[in-house]
Bifunctional NAD(P)H-hydrate repair enzyme (Endobacterium cereale), 491 residues
Amino acid sequence: MIDLSTHIFTPQEMNAVDAASVASGIPFFDLMERAGQAVAASALRLYPQARRFVALCGPGNNGGDGYVAARALCEAGAVVAVLEMAGDTALKGDARRAALACPLQPSPLSEYRPEAGDVIIDALFGAGLSRILSGDVQQLIAAINDAGLPVIAVDLPSGICGLRGKVLGSALQATRTITFMAMKLGHLLMPGRTFCGEIEVFDIGIPHRTLAAHVGNIRKNHPSLWASRLPALAGETHKYKRGHLVVFSGSASHTGAARLAATAGSKCGAGLVTVASPQDAVAVNAGALTAVMVRQVETQAELTNWLDTAKISACVLGPGFGVGERARDFVSVLTEKPLVLDADGITSFRDEPKLLFDAFAGGETKLVLTPHEGEFARLFPDIAADENLGKVEKARAAAARSNAVIVYKGADSVIASPDGRAYINSNAPPWLATAGSGDVLAGMIGALLAQGVPAFEAAAAGAYLHGEAALKAEPGMTAEDLAQHANIDLT
């Protein structure tokens, strides 16, 4: 059976599910009836003392759900007002049927004025919205948001693009979002996630086999997707079996980022961690590290010689390393090792991204790129500039181009594989946005690579565990605090 707690659907996939359900003999109006009844039940449970429920009904099937909800609330004895964008003659199919079955006389949407005690049922537009809202609808949304009224959104708050999570002009701020069968991209991608409030997923009777037949390969990042790939300690385990992680340091005045990554890598299970330092940084790093080793690696030749003799399992290059030719030279000799390229390492290829992509083209994916938005645009300027693409689509396109796992960082970090898989991370608390947290993430992913976890699973696990570490460190944490909590703990 499909795990609906992690599967994420695009609007197009859900449209295909609806069509397949109807083709299998399930009347679409039955699905609409169950959806509207679920909204009404949630509204009565959450706001039993509401002075009035106000159903805002749009011109499509989302509006049909709203008419059903209004009828159910009325039948339950609540005071209900219905405001519509289109008269019943303009409605089509099951939405029109739902409107005609509603005993309440609707008023034009333009007549609504927010009143104290109102609870809004937002059934204007669902997850399929892709165009900018009209000016009059935006004005209404502003009035409701300004009034601070409770809003129950049907499927997705009106004004949010279900595919990209973007605000299409303006969006209703929901207190609760009621969606059906499974979550959609707009529920997880920013800024859409912030407009949803609490999200409830209701089963309205679509067979799981129908959902499984049309779901893609986008998931909500969760341990159930990768926990089986994590290393398990055994009695015969020794440090080299747990992997040797190398983190490359910058010059003497830029060593902190590498030490953060190295500390996190050690906490996250790497058996041995070495900070490879230029000559002027060796003493600085050695004086600040204990369990982590330090080795002088100044030139490309020194790195090449070391690689020939050392048991190195994975590398992290970029945090505090410095931008330029030396970074590119080091990367050119690390192509046979699993590599996390972050920060300065990414920026070093902004003028020659193809040089990086060609170096890791073909074969097993060993490269993990961890860009924030600005760094992403430096490596993939055309993809970043395409406003028609959402974050998941951009990350997938970048992964395919570079033959790398992309961790497109942010509050809604997207982890994408060249094979098209994409996970959306949603457990990162706001206080994770602090200087140095990206260095910790790079070290955590590097440690998992060093322990033999495949690149995509290492990146997904690292992103999730990074969020869990921040939750344990609690508000007010520093990156140093975060690194100390970077252990693998799924309890």
